[in-house]
# Entry
Amino acid sequence: MHHEPVLLTEAMDLLAPAKGEAVLDCTVGLGGHASAFLGAIGESGRLTGLDADAENLRYAQTRLSAPNVVLHHGNFRDLASLALPPQDVIFADLGLSSPHVDDASRGFTFRNDAPLDMRFNRDAGETAAEMLQRMDAEEISAILHDFGELRQTRRLAQALGASAAQTTGDVRTCAEAVFGFRAPRVLPQVFQALRIAVNDEIGSLRALLETAPSLLAPGGRMGVISYHSLEDRMVKVAMKALATPVRSAETGAVTEPARYALRTRKPVVPSEEEAKRNPRSRSAKFRVLERCLPQTDL
Ligand SMILES: C[S@@+](CC[C@H](N)C(=O)[O-])C[C@H]1O[C@@H](n2cnc3c(N)ncnc32)[C@H](O)[C@@H]1O
# Structure
């Protein structure tokens, strides 16, 4: 199985995992970034990995089998329930992995006809087909608008609602009936919207951004790679808020210094060379936050 880790050099430079450190990879996937983290922290470090996809996790296990590695099958939205000790590095590389796209039977791609599943975790939750059956046209339209950033979603939502779509081909047929020759341009957004909704990706990211920063040890670094503007905006806003000191409304003086600092003012993006070599990296944006060391009173 091949998956080239996105922004690997940049992640290693900015997150700088060091010998003996504790690293939490919230999206182990096929273990690409995690292998590099493990190499850097050595035998005295500790790697905790998490993935919603049991198949990816099984594969990662084969690459990451070491006594100082613990892998969990689960959603990073439930991070708090793992009761982890403070971490020196926390990392999330959001979204799809290569097998999700390459294995047509997962239902993530409109390029092949397959059951309309789209779940990262095939052991739980409803499939995209079940979700469409449960929703009315208004709900489907909101998903297409909010998560696919599509306009004029009403007719497609009605077509999807009425179609009882069971396969990726059924969704494609609906899009072609509504958008005609424009369908190929719209289909990636339609599939993105359904995938985000099925996996509640926005809700999961919100929970991650609320929980993970407080798990950082002083001096710890947290990095997130996102692949579309909805996610990047959430990461940007959350990190900026954490890195902003509290000021008095009257005097403007700082009343509480920020406990975090931004390590990236602007998102780090793939080099031209990486984007050419690995087209899947093209939309990647990487942001890093650091937990400040406690201020000592002299
Ligand atoms: C881009 S891939 C990660 C690739 C990995 N960095 C590597 O180098 O192999 C994203 C992974 O995150 C997982 N994932 C997505 N959302 C998740 C969530 N809310 N909780 C846990 N895992 C999630 C997917 O199943 C997928 O395996």
